[in-house]
Structures are given as C-alpha cells and as structure tokens.
Amino acid sequence: MNQKGGVGKTTSAINIGAFLAEAGKSVLLVDFDSQANLSSGVGIRANKAKPGVYELISGLAPLDDVIKATAVKGLSVIPSDKDLAGAAVELIEQDERDYFLKNALEPAKKQFDFILIDCPPSLGVLTLNGIIAADSILIPMQCEYFAMEGLTHLLETVNRVQKTLNPKLNIGGIFFTMYDVRTRLAQQVVKEVSSYFSSKVFTAIIPRNIRLSEAPSHGLPISKYDPASSGAKAYKSLALEVLKRG
Question: By residue range, what is the domain housing residue 227?
C-alpha cells in the first residue's frame, strides 16, 4: 500500500509473490485496483478476468471460481477489471462495507501461505477493505522528497485504522524502489528513512531497471522474464527478507 501512485506497488506485489512461490510457498495475489495492472502483469488479460475480485466481494461468485493460475508454480491470482470501480460506489451504501474483502478471503487463509493484496493508490473504501483484510502492510517507497511526505501521511492513516478498524494490523516493512545510486537525493532519502524507521526498513533496495518495466507487457514476473537482471536479483533478496520476517 501507498497512497501515492507510481511507486511500484503492483510491480512489487507481482515479483515478491513470484519469488515467494519459487521458494516453495503457496501464494495468492489479489488485484484490488480497477486498473487491473497486476492481472495483466501475470498474464490475465481482460477477456479472462471474469469472474474476478468484483464478483467475489459482490457475492456473485465463490472463492474457488475466481482464483486463476499463473505461469509460476505455486502463484495464483484473483484478477480485477474495470467493474471494480463500480464496487467503490456500491459498497458505500452497504452495512459493514469495510469488511467485504476480509470476509471473502477468510477461507483462502487455509489454502495459501501468503496472500498479497495490491491496493489502489488512494484512501477510499477499496483501500480500507484491503487494510482491514491484511495482517501487515508492505510499503514501497520511491527515493524522492515528496515520497517522504507521503510516508508520513500513510503512517497516520495506518495508525487511525489500527485504533478503530483493525487493531492487529502492523507495518510489515518499508522498502525503496526505483533507486538510482547516481543521485544524491536517493541516497539521502534512504539514509533518513532508514535511520528513523530502522527496524522497519528492508535491506534489499529495488533499482531502476528497464527489464522490470518490460516484464509486465509480457505477462510475466521478472523471475521468468529475466532472472539474471539486477531487478530480479533485488526482488529475490526482498522476497527472502519478507519470508524471514514471516
């Protein structure tokens, strides 16, 4: 989760999930963004996305019918499509509107070792559903000044949710994305955030890497598209850290 767009949420969900699966874990990706970039990023095109997460939370399809396989053994996905945007409006009028995803995914906890929810870049009813369904939040952070401001607002939001809607929620970790070692600002952001949130910051840093940008257009995680790339090596290290933290 990150309320700021373009920080690598979807790329990270796909690639952390893929490397966890390759480490022998059963992993479910949940595309909870109506842009459906995660779905296409693992090879689920729009004409194959139904039934998906919209049908699941609307009660139109059971969990088993919406889970799709991917090219990675052990990695499954619940896809999304543009209809999910309508769910944000429909849910506003419903009782317990913030708990639809949590209730829908409850049976999946027995089937999968990890469930990764890709939240939209805003704090609306869909993102709240994602936060309430989660045990912990992974925060991708771009190495730029405004990202630091956004992190402060995000942590305030998490704190409010912990107090009111999901007291078991914790920060699973913060990691840096799109890192360019040549810029002084990137180095400064990493230094400042790491010193302030030392125990929460992952060691692995995701670099700017063209192969990471190319992989989604082929419907593949980086582990399948170019396992020797710097992006693949970084996400593998990050996934192993996630695995170690549990």
Answer: 9-245
